[in-house]
């Protein structure tokens, strides 16, 4: 063995050993009260085989892109095709993911980059408010505007693929670490936020990635490792369709170019190789035309993941990165040559990727990357993950911010959710005597970007931690903004109330508290992503700070920056606590967005995108975090459809603050409500359209020479290549002619017509037929200008054969700013799908009672529904008793 190979083997061993030791160890931080041990995948939860992968290209909207892609693919060699389906390795380029190229044919390396709220690890970018903040606006135009701005920034930096939006996790688990990346604990809120983000981003020519597919509801134990499989989310088919799949279906309907397969397993089978989820649901039922990428290092096999429908491996490495190993690249070339992966499958993988590139117009004038996610310096290694890398210019500091700060600020402002406001305490006068407490009111003294991927909770909390973050170009903190507006301010930059304070009756205390969470690879203050140690309480003794302030000051206003629900019970009913504002995660625009509400430039108009309980025991036990020492942690969705408000309503638990709650400085009336029937319903949707034609190619195994290393090629150690040594390629080709591969159980290679529930992107197109439209006149009846949200919840007819949550959000609309006395007509639409349930036997969306009487409730919160419209009589009534 040569010295260099010996050296590499030792290195490999060291990396493997260190990986074993950095695995999440059972930690003292685990809260055993809320973290339960689980056993095996329960018998009734099955991941059935579904083969083959449906070819892409059968949807009319994509046919031109597929036509162009097919021309390119037909001219590609085997090694070029396998190269474009895989990343070049961990840290092997400027972006967080860098696919292989086919430069001979004009296809560049694709740059894939986080995050869903702005450019991760970059410069001269906007740090937008997080998804949960966007959800709290309930404003479709702002959701879209943020997508457009994100798309412009990603394009400006030369990024081909935007790694967002996040619509999973949905927030099933209140302690889940990444709920804040998405838009709220409801499928429709997630779906609308996700789809509008996709439309905005892709309108700029950037491929969006909807993630994480699917049921990645907890951070701990999400990844497969050498010693432990990632947890299995065990779910029934109806719950999957009606809750967690819903936002993905809407994203696909919006034309999303890419889907990221999650780390975890579903019903015992890893998402990155779960043929039922990828081939069956995503590509057949939902008619997904783009490509499926793995989450980073989520691929756990070569041939099985290929056959199950994975199209791109990211970042390309095998389970343990930086060894120069891959399940694909040269291994995929070999697998095609030896006949274990059908040529047909590789052609479809490559075609899907190239078609998405054409679909966004990236073949014309698309800029190459001009930044590096690896360093803030101008120059550095071009392949930081390589053992020896050439260096060069990596950051060109292109300013992509444009006027996006305004979009960001408007979102942060219109998300602010007023939970309580006794005696019109808010808004404040700028002359008030303000005593301000809490480190959350001011920037992190160590620097706003001092913690990598925001992996700390110091100073104003503008976002959670992990890959879903951006560096702040600046942070307009609450104190910056308050001190520039108010004249009589004293700030105590501490989370402990100083002793010896005396209050005068005119003093108003503003207390800033927060609650953080993030991604599992960083542990902050004992929380490994999920809120294990902190629970649902405010961090840094926030509860004590509020209580201590309330003991001295007669007027206390609590301002909360938070990733999700927190418990308020220790202080919410104290007489001094007069007002509470949830400012969610505002990104860089934390300051002026807040002062414009505090000082009454605008009325708060945000509404809760989740329920706030009195205490954690009000949730079903099954939504606690799972924890297991050995084997696969099992996370079984026994609560079914009943998460968040659906659960509280089903069990008649009145929460502290209901989903959708949010107060205003003014009041609104809803009048002239009209319901109109549009498309008549039938029990099941009309027959789906047949699939259109898809590209056809030769299915003959190409000659081994298509995978030979080019002569004289200068290799970079650890970089992943798709070529094989001549001897290996020839040997693989020889195997193909002498033996056949044992495919997985259930494998066939005959394309199917597709299920009745499919037929277009998102599913059967008639699912989006509008069944009923409701229009309502919203009038500002108070003394302040403001914006109202009309939330539309469907109640299914009584007596149907399906157990269904009493109310479910199906559409919403927000007024413009209405002056006193001003009115606006809002329109909400209710589709066939909105009025259907997923029937597991028929495998279709079924209207459970055609002609039955649905009640569609319209109101400003899920627990304030007094206006109902009836589909049987086509009449609406006000002054009703709220159904919950
Ligand atoms: C893992 C995260 O789960 C995913 O959201 C992210 O896009 C990738 N890492 C790349 O950073």
UniProtKB/TrEMBL annotation:
GO molecular function: beta-glucosidase activity
Enzyme class: hydrolase
Record flagged with keyword Mitochondrion: no
Database matches in InterPro entries: Cellulose_deg_GH3, Fn3-like, GH, Glyco_hydro_3_AS, Glyco_hydro_3_C, Glyco_hydro_3_C_sf, Glyco_hydro_3_N, Glyco_hydro_3_N_sf
Key words of the record: Carbohydrate metabolism, Cellulose degradation, Glycoprotein, Glycosidase, Hydrolase, Polysaccharide degradation, Signal
Leader peptide range in chain numbering: 1-29
Chemical reaction(s) catalysed: Hydrolysis of terminal, non-reducing beta-D-glucosyl residues with release of beta-D-glucose
Pfam families: Fn3-like (PF14310), Glyco_hydro_3 (PF00933), Glyco_hydro_3_C (PF01915)
E.C. designation(s): 3.2.1.21
Pathway(s) annotated for this protein in UniProt: Glycan metabolism; cellulose degradation
SUPFAM superfamilies: (Trans)glycosidases, Beta-D-glucan exohydrolase, C-terminal domain
Listed GO biological process terms: cellulose catabolic process
Domain Fibronectin type III-like: 788-862
UniProt similarity note: Belongs to the glycosyl hydrolase 3 family.
Protein name (Swiss-Prot/TrEMBL): beta-glucosidase
Organism: Glonium stellatum
